[in-house]
């Protein structure tokens, strides 16, 4: 771990004064790449398949604190993950200012749209829309500067193209001026090629293009960060862990069953054996969390 970056839980007081930006999104959607670009960091990137970032990181740079998060729907089950995000976000004592929600352009599917709505409905609440900005990553077309320029014809054309996809029209209408198209592909390590070889020259040209596109993204996002000042999102607005857990019928049923078993054991009417209780181990931690929280 880089010294300048730190696991957030070590000192949350650092977050009190600066503007706070949180990256959210599915595993492999480019959160850490953006975090690195904007906060001048060098956190390891993932391979888009398995989850890379396992901890929440933050770094303050130019009076803005950037927070990188673990990706949605990684190896753990979804509910568990959401609980982790809630617990974590709730610990940002003074709330946060901007959420950069990342979605890969090449997987702009209904599944992604559902995940997006679910995160806002069940975790953050819709109030967080006011603080959010949609980052559509893996944008490959050449007109990356134009599509990020508000009111440009290219941007309108692209947004109309997206609007044809009904699942997103509501989101696009809402975020209209808070959508950015991002391409921050990782540069090739030229040290792997002998200087002056054909491969070296090819990759050098590719790296120059990647660098140029990164600079464009950097320029637009920094302009946005500078001018976008929503009212700070108070983490107390988020759904509680209890809300999230009880939304899931299966878990609710399991919790009821567990309560019955515990009550049988307590009243010495136990008809169940040890293995019945072990069966509930994965949710026991959540159970403790729920009742330990309030
Ligand atoms: N071409 C392209 N590649 C990208 C872009 N954003 C990220 N990548 C690549 O996608 C892979 C995953 O990127 P990360 O930034 O690690 O994604 P993440 O959202 O932090 O992933 P987790 O930490 O697993 O949740 C890396 O190989 C990046 O180089 C982009 O906008 N364009
Ligand atoms: Mg990451």
From TrEMBL:
Coiled-coil residue windows = 241-268
The answer to whether the entry has keyword Nucleus is no
GO MF, one example: GTP binding
Q: Domain of life, per the record?
A: Eukaryota
Question: Could you confirm whether the keyword Chloroplast appears in this record?
Answer: no
- Keyword field: Coiled coil
InterPro entries tied to this protein? GTP-bd, P-loop_NTPase
Q: Which residues form the G domain?
A: 21-112
- State what protein this is by name: G domain-containing protein
């Amino acid at each position: 771990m880089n010294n300048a970056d730190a696991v957030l839980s070590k000192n949350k007081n650092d977050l009190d004064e600066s503007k706070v930006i949180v990256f959210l999104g599915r595993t492999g959607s480019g959160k850490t790449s953006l975090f690195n670009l904007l906060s001048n960091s060098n956190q390891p990137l993932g391979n888009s398949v398995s989850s890379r970032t396992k901890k929440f990181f933050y770094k303050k740079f130019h009076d803005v604190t950037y927070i990188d998060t673990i990706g949605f729907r990684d190896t753990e089950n979804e509910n568990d993950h959401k609980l982790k995000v809630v617990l974590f976000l709730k610990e940002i004592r003074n709330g946060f200012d901007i959420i950069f929600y990342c979605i890969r352009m090449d997987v702009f599917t209904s599944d992604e749209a559902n995940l997006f709505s679910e995160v806002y409905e069940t975790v953050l609440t819709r109030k967080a829309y006011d603080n959010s900005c949609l980052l559509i990553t893996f944008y490959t077309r050449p007109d990356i500067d134009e599509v990020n320029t508000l009111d440009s014809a290219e941007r309108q054309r692209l947004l109309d193209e997206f609007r044809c996809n009904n699942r997103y029209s509501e989101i696009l209408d809402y975020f209209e001026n808070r959508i950015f198209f991002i391409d921050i592909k990782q540069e090739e390590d030229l040290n792997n090629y002998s200087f002056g070889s054909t491969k070296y020259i090819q990759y050098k040209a590719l790296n120059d293009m990647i660098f140029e596109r990164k600079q464009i993204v950097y320029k637009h996002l920094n302009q946005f960060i500078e001018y976008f000042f929503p009212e700070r999102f108070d983490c107390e607005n988020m759904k509680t862990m209890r809300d999230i857990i009880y939304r899931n019928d299966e878990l609710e049923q399991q919790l009821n069953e567990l309560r019955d078993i515990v009550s049988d054991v307590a009243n010495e009417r136990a008809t169940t054996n040890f293995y019945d209780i072990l069966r509930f181990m994965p949710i026991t931690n959540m159970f403790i969390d729920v009742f330990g929280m309030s």
